[in-house]
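Complex record, two chains
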Amino acid sequence: MAQKTIAGVNLQVTEEGYLEDLLQWTEEIAKGIAQEEGIELTEKHFEVIKFIRDNVDAGLTIRKIGKSGIVDIKGFYDLFPGGPLKMSTKIAGVKKPASCV
Amino acid sequence: MSEKKDTQVKKVAIICAKAALEDVYAALVMANGAVMEGMEAKVFFTFFGLDAITKKQMNKLHTATVGNPGMRMPGGLPFPTLLGTIPGVEAGVSAMMRSQMEKLDIPPVDEFLDMITAGGGEIYACKLAVDMFKLKKEDLSDHVIDIITIGDFYAMAGGDGSQVIFT
């Protein structure tokens, strides 16, 4: 476990930088993590992030996000280039999904 | 003291030569997993593996109920070879496998190809096998970029951190 300060808040994060406690998450923190990943968050990003936070307990897959009605899979890759599922979940403040699809 | 240096995998070139459900899905899961991780993925379908990108066959792949030592009855008892020879059993078992996969959010082959290509993965068909099975470009999935030789495929497979995988 590691400590990290994002958007002025001291946070517990995993080795890979995922928040340990999803309740600590704020939109400001999301913006901070996204900035580190080189992504500027738009409204569309936040719609996806909301979907992720609402559905995290059901198990997240790229396919599920593609069927969310918010973005298709191509759009999801465009929003979070270079690893959309692991990047979006990190920004959404949830744990890293153990998913192969 | 020698220092251990790992080169990260950046690109996978996957060759799928078989039509069995498990062989095709192994190739597709690896390709999709690669693009999900931000890696490059190229898949080359050859010989019976072409079924996976042939429109008529792709969503009807079977797993072998004869000659498959991993096959078990529900509950774990061995699957009798003779049972596997009865018409319809292989289709039934295969349908069951597909429905189990659907529950894990593993899509049918056509949708899996949609996912892989949406992430930038590339799909190719083997020229030799296409000629051998007398197939045409229009028989194949629209996701197939081109029908190429293995030499062409190798030419695309190079680079630092590249791996060639055969299923």
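Note: Chain B has a mean pLDDT of 95.
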